[in-house]
Amino acid sequence: MGRYIVRRLAQAVGTLLLVMFVLHLLTTVAIQLNGTPAQAFFGDRVASPAQIASVERRFNLDDPCFDQPGNPCLGPFVERLGQYARGDLGTNLRGREVTDIVAAAAPNTLRLFSVVLVTWLALGMLLGSAAARWRGSPGDHGIRLSSVLIDAFPVFVLLVVYRYVVAVPLNRWSEQTFGENSWPPYWFKPSFDPSHPWATIVVPGILLGLAGSAAFIRLVRASQLESYQGDHVRTARSKGLGERHVILHHVVRNSSVPVVTAIGLAFVEGLGGAVITEGIMNIYGIGGVLWQAVQDDDVALVIAVVTLLTVVTVLVMIIVDIVYALLDPRIRYE
Amino acid sequence: MRQTRIATFAAGAAVVALTVAGCTPDDTEPDSAGPLTLETWISQDMETLFPGDAGAYDNISVLDTVYDGLVRYDPETTEPYNYVAESIEPNDDNTVWTITIKPGLTFQNGEPVDAEAFARSWNYTADGDNGLYANYFFGIIEGYDEMQPETDDAGEIVAEGAADELSGLKVTDDLTLEVTLSSPFAGFATMLGYTGFFPVAQECLDDVEACATQPIGNGPFQVTDWQQGQELTAERWADYPLEEAPNYDAIHWTEYSAGETASWADFQAGDIDLSFPPTAEVEAAQSDPELSERYVEQPGAALTFLGFSGYTEGPWNDKEFRKAISMAIDREGIISSLGSGQAAPADSWAVPGGVPGGEAGTCEWCVYDPEAAKAALEAAGGWPEGETLQISLGDDDAEVEYFTAIGNSIEEVLGIPYELNIVSSDDYFTIRSEQGYDGMFRNNWFPDYPLNENYLSFYASGEPGAGHWGWYSKEFEDKLDEAAAAPSLDESVALYQEAEAILAEEFPTIPFRWSFSATYYSERLDNVILNPFSGAPILRDIEISE
Amino acid sequence: MNDVGLVSAAWRTLRRRPDVIVAALIVLFFAVMAAFPRLFTATSPRTCAIREARLDPQGWGAAHPLGTDALGCDVLATLVAGVRPSLLLAFVVVGASLLIGVTLGLLAGYYLGWADYLISRTIEVFLVVPLLLAALLLLSLFKNVDLGAGTFDVILLPAVVLILFNWMGYARYVRASVLEAKNLDYVTAARSLGASDLRIMFRHVLPNAIGPVTALIPTSIAAVIGTEAVLSFLGIGVRPPATSWGIQISQGSEWVLGGAPHILIAPLVCLIAAVLSLVVLGDALRDALDPRLTA
């Protein structure tokens, strides 16, 4: 097990370097092909070469390689690696520390993710188990159909409709019903409020979780179906154990393996949903920061944030694999 | 089984409940005892509050409450009046300006606001080595060129600027500043209220980075907390000495990634005091009698216009073709459908009523006239068979919609097939300055200071084929020089109008739309006045009642 | 395992389920719409009169049966015009990623060793980079490239991006089934009889792995249609004035409250109907093709 983890970590470092290099190449080529972000700084103005040059220097883009299409700009890349090795993530184009940006944005995204995860777990375990338990019944069909229906509904429509049609009346109603200084009006605020970060993120999180829950429900259902047909369940039943005991200890526990996989994957794919939810609900989070950074050709910020994300993702994947082994005694790593 | 499910559900619900409940919300909402706070919005991409580096709507509107300039602008006429300045006097040929400052003013940290405070600010911003946004404003002052870095042909810096101070800037005594311009300019006083000309404290220059997030101003509000990307709070400065002091205690800006209309839902929920609805909800808001009473509007000063790649071969190099395009665009129809209450059709190059010398109707061919458009296209020799007109613009959703409508209008009237070339908003400028478009493209101009000159001087390209539109007219540029050298502001304004007439005759660009500022405000606000020039509510004049 | 037997058994199961038949009909309906748009509307989606914007639906037979959108374009005409890019994108993406995924999965699973190492690392890199980020990066790289306005040209960029981030699932799936199948008795037998690698791969290993992968196809198509809508909402999908369901939905979502909900509802209903039918088909196909669950 120990050796396995070491090997996985070594591979992870390789993946990390590769990802960083590919991103570096892409952003560099973007600057080389489309011109430096320094010009965008001046907007409608016609800037003189001297003005552009000094802004380029201010943005740390004054290395001549950024003007030469095809040049991989290894110099700045190596410099950046050295910087990271010293634990310095650098600054964005306008000189704001990347660590500050991440420290402000990451907690909100994590809050969003945790609400999404709780929603998934609740819905998936509940509906998925029910569908598997009564396989083929109208309830099963109903659950499957409605989960697909929600899944087919684009998440941005859900959020836009919620924000512009539902949230304001709900907010007013709850203010009148529960009073201004109670929690319910905060739950239904049309925008995220940084001074009440949890209360105002619950509903957006649930909506985002709702939209992605279909795959999860199906996963739980499928794996539990497999369990119901498994030998251990048959044995447990024939031993005369109560149905409740069988379901809890043999079916539900066994289906936790795919559930853990899903959590790992969700983390990777969740960022897409985060970009949209953060944008619509005005949450200052990692998704939005990254989105803006790519649009601004902010190389330093893009690479720093993605590097952090990659580290977290790879770690989550490794942990997921280890949890596998703990949950399912059949899996052994050498 | 039933019990299990209920248990699972209860557990899930408990987790949710635990995360959100636990305690009651702390009391940050305004109530009768707390400070009176104005709740408003800014865009999320605001990066800095250093005066010399500010250039966006957002930092300008924040800095306008935190700093005071030499002049401020009259909301009725946009004319500048002296505020921090006691007097601003030019010499006979408008080349040397003597500025005296009111005595006894200080920054929020106690440093004096004197001639030195202005000089250090201007020198720092004018120094090209610092790469600040407002740098170009100082090009008009003598000694600017010596402060800029030298570049080689590849655009790389070979040497830093030789000088660190503007030679045309002299502190003659504590409160007097003498400014020598490199060429005569009658409108210099008009420029002085712009953020780039605000004074800065020595403490601010000692740590510019800190000052960019925690400004040390001389205005009625001081920034107390800025969570960049989320919110900004400024509280009233108790010792503010001048007369335009607010009647309330604090301003709280919420930052929105999607701009003003994103704050509309919060306005409706009562969390924001000033807002304007998204296009789809404008009609509903306008027909709400109660809301319409809390509404102010003001024609804006930002011009959206269409330019052509005069540097590439194409029918657009024929004036008749440009006329045809212009008359084929149904400005009124498009604006009433897509942007009612947010825009107005444009038929001039300088905003009518918004700046001295701006008049409506200077553009003869800016009316929708399908027949005349077809005739003009014929006169231009028609559109080449099988070609597609490329319309380039940045990737802003609302603008894409507008330009789809413009394209549709052109296609419908003239039968010219079009395609949109959407580039990222940032690259859009680079491509334009590198003359990389082919066909028609979107342009937008928001003036820096209220003078019709500001709408015209950027057309001066210096030589044939240069500039954003590859357009050059010697007559036009001579007229600009003549106007700048005019003995008085009024004569200067009139000469600039003549320059606009030359532009209207040569028709290199097509005016499309004026911005239109409109704001709804909450019940507790009063005296909401829009700055006729920027369109932003003048925050320090707003009155809040309990 | 007898392929023909499995397929015909699958067909028999599918036929007996009414939901599958309805789903198949819906998919067929949209396919016909994509192939023969003239059957459904005579109006061009590009003739738009801005003064006729946001008309309410007028009913069948009128000038604008489903009303007009914010730009004055006929909703029915844009809807019909949007089917083709949406479906074409989905098919191209799924087809190409299937090809790439199956080939790489086969190679990795069959040869193992350095080929497997290389392919597995590549899969990992692609899994780690978030799709939207990469999409934005790649599209911003090529956005200044003029590709033309043909149906295929307008979907090319989103297609390339989605293919790049879609093949990994198939590759992993195929690799796993190849690993399983490689050790089956008849494969070992074929190898000892001297069959070539290619022959073993295509005759013996691949057919075994292809069943579960086939069941994934309808669901993947549905997923691509959904993702296209999201990309369009974020402004990096099919580019206007070309149209797709995604573009119509994201434009329509602005008008839910503006007295013109039909601009949103029409394409949304189509999208949901198509996605739902494809998922039902996929489910049925999986039930039919996955022998473990039919037991």
Please summarize what this structure is.
Chain A has 334 residues and is an all-alpha fold. Chain A has helices at residues 2-34, 37-41, 49-58, 74-85, 98-133, 138-152, 155-178, 184-187, 202-228, 231-238, 243-254, 256-281, 286-295, 299-327. Chain A contains 14 helices and no strands.
Topology record:
The complex is a heterotrimer of chains A (334), B (546) and C (295).
Chain A: H1 2-34, H2 37-41, H3 49-58, H4 74-85, H5 98-133, H6 138-152, H7 155-178, H8 184-187, H9 202-228, H10 231-238, H11 243-254, H12 256-281, H13 286-295, H14 299-327
Helix pairs in contact in A: 1-14, 5-6, 5-9, 5-12, 6-9, 7-12, 9-11, 9-12, 10-11, 12-13, 12-14, 13-14
Chain B: H1 2-20, E1 37-43, H2 57-66, E2 71-73, E3 80-82, E4 85-90, E5 96-101, H3 115-126, E6 150-151, E7 157-159, E8 169-173, E9 176-180, H4 188-191, H5 202-206, H6 208-213, E10 221-227, E11 231-236, E12 250-256, H7 264-268, E13 274-275, H8 279-286, H9 289-292, E14 295-308, H10 319-328, H11 331-338, E15 343-345, H12 370-379, E16 389-394, H13 397-414, E17 418-423, H14 425-433, E18 440-445, H15 453-456, H16 474-484, H17 489-506, E19 510-521, E20 525-526, E21 543-544
Parallel strand pairs in B: 1-12, 16-17, 16-18
Antiparallel strand pairs in B: 2-3, 4-5, 5-9, 6-7, 8-9, 10-11, 11-12, 13-19, 14-18, 14-19, 15-19, 20-21
Chain C: H1 3-15, H2 18-35, H3 75-111, H4 113-128, H5 131-142, H6 151-164, H7 167-182, H8 185-192, H9 197-233, H10 245-252, H11 262-289, H12 291-294
